[in-house]
Design goal:
Helix content of chain B: 55-70%
Strand content of chain A: under 5%
CATH superfamily of the largest domain in chain A: Cytochrome C biogenesis protein
CATH class of the largest domain in chain A: Mainly Alpha
Radius of gyration of chain B: 26 Å
Oligomer: heterodimer
Number of strands of chain B: 10
Helix content of chain A: 55-70%
Structural class of chain A: mainly alpha
Largest sheet of chain B: 6 strands, antiparallel
Largest sheet of chain A: none
Number of helices of chain A: 4
Radius of gyration of chain A: 24 Å
CATH topology of the largest domain in chain A: Helicase, Ruva Protein, domain 3
Number of helices of chain B: 18
Distance between the termini of chain A: 87 Å
Order of helices and strands of chain B: HHHHHHHHHHHHHHHHHEEEEEEEEEEH
Order of helices and strands of chain A: HHHH
Distance between the termini of chain B: 49 Å
Number of strands of chain A: 0
Strand content of chain B: 5-15%
Shape of chain B: flat
CATH architecture of the largest domain in chain A: Orthogonal Bundle
Shape of chain A: elongated
Structural class of chain B: alpha+beta
Chain lengths: 123, 625
Amino acid sequence: MKIFRIFIILLLITNFSELKSDEKSDILKNKILKNIRCLICQGQSVYDSESEFASSIKLIVDKKINEGAKEDSIYSFLIEKYGDWIVYEPQLNKNTYILWLLPLLLFLLGGAIIVKKIQKKNE
Amino acid sequence: MFANQIGYYSLILGLLFSFLLCTIAIQDFNKVNKKLNANIIILTFLQLTFVIVSFFSLILSFINSDFSNETVFNNSHTTKPLFYKISGTWGNHEGSLLLWLLVLTLFIFLFLLKSNSQPKKYRILTLLFQQIIIIGFFLFVLTTSNPFNYLFPIPKEGLGLNPILQDPALAIHPPILYLGYVGASIIFSASLAAVAQNYISKEWAQHIKKWVLISWIFLSLGIMLGSIWAYYELGWGGFWFWDPVENVSLMPWLSLTALLHCIAVLERRATLTSWVVVLSITTFTLSMCGTFLVRSGLLNSVHTFANDPARGIFILIFLFVLIILSLGVFFIFHKDNNGNQNNFFWLSRETSILINNWFMMYFLSVVLIGTVYPIFLDVISSEKISVGPPFYHKLIAPFLIPFLLFMALGPRLKWIKSKIEKKYSIIIIFIISIILTFFIIKNLTTNILFYTLLLSAAFFLFFTTLKEFLTKKLNNSSQTIAHFGFSLLILSILFNGILSSEVITNMKIGEKFKFGKEEIFFKKIEERRESNFNSIVAFFEIKDLEGNVVELEPEIRVYNQPLMVTSEADIKTTLLEDKFIVMNLVKGNEYFNVRYQSKPFMVWIWISVFLLGLGGTIGLFKTRT
């Protein structure tokens, strides 16, 4: 009886944790799919699209997640195959340094201008 | 038939009036009389009338489905409901440019009418600068985008309007947006005129402020209408996708918002003159850039009606002319005469507004670079990259935290030099915000630290402005309402983002699907027929744990002209949440692809934008009295 109870509890726990990891991989999967562009649609992510292209990408991502691939490695895999155009979040590389860093530089510059303006006026 | 000719010749007359106006205005400029030549206002009115006549003859052609007109043929169909025949007038490239012209001429007429107390030379120069823009657009319409091109033989039937544009929100979205977008032209012209006359002053700030407010209110509402449309029409349940075309409308809004704050400083302290001029020029330039990007076909979207390189090149050249003209005027005439007694102190209202401008310019640079950079990269290295929502979220969201805090504290400071008053109440509100946020956020697993900070900052602004309502006699109600609206906007966007849940599944009739605490029941389908489409209407019931049932009826429409299948979402809105359902056909199958979303606080996003607009409107009436 005791063994039976433990068995049930164990079963419940394993089931439970399985459900959890399922949910987690679902969240990860949706996050990834929303970040991939459907190449044959107009301004839609793979997640939002029902096209054949989107369906095939969904299968690939599913497979990769089940194989235990990390988010970044899935992106790099897709980029290698389809080019940078496919991900909505541009990777940081020599092509995109300006894109990512210029706004931040402008922010610093703006701050410097304000500080200078106020200090100068105060003198 | 007639309407075509009347419309076309009215346009030509309108253009001739521009030249006539310029001649008379230049003559009047050097005359000693203090008052503006009355003929000028009459001529401006006549010019406006001709554009209105032209515009109405196009509407008339649309109403009568006169397919001898090429624009009507390309964008209308006899089976379309009257409402969409009319809105089809501006739902295309040629017609929307006519709307541009209409707003341009309307604003200069209103400006002359309402600026009696202003110096004559300043008014004349404003008219001249505005006429340069108007002439440019007349030429653009007449040479590359004539809405009255004649077709022979006359086709029996038109090609129809893109079905996703056949929608009430989208029917009024362009006129409202244009009142803001193109309304910025008058700010541009007026500021150049004021620079040339060395008239950038407190008086000028008071007078131009209401024009800035008008543009700002319409631009805000116009963007919101577009967003509402995207929410229920595009079928994915989001309201902002950082699509280039959305960004293009956001950019002038950001710069106009910066200008709006900056004008307040100019009004009180006669300082920051150069910056005000730069912002005025920037705002309209961004509107023009947006038109260029959208119309040239560089950006691919619903708004790209036709890809004709000649149009792109025309706007590009015109844009450069305007930029060179404005920079020329600025550098030749502008005298920075604020080097006198105007000290800036760290703790002052002016500094807080400078900080506002600092952040606004940063947000603007993010959106601008994110939108334009991929195009440049493509041209230079022919490498294509996508810049989508994650980019903007990463670069904008963290900066919202200090921005919201400054926004709460800034208005409490006094002009020139100030102390922080009532420190304790600020600290108490701050602590309450953090505790409240912590309790809300602790059950949610995502990125706790970041969301706690951002939400606390938003709550802090929320409570600070709320307290203002409750305790003060509301001496600056427009600002308080607008800031309150903004805090509500950020809060509802955040909660909407965190708490939304959705499911995509395939279902057939009679099937039930369990989703979280709710059960989705696919009851039946029904076929319906309208003049411009046939549709399949599905009936869904959403039942929650307490047994409350919500009925939703999404549709799949098959439009006849042009032949196109669209999915129409059905949304049940309550104050707490929106239930959103949309379905698609699955090929050769009895199943339907169903997407169900529960989106908390959705309606508050729209309400908060209305509050922003309300704040602006109150400000408008206050400056008048």
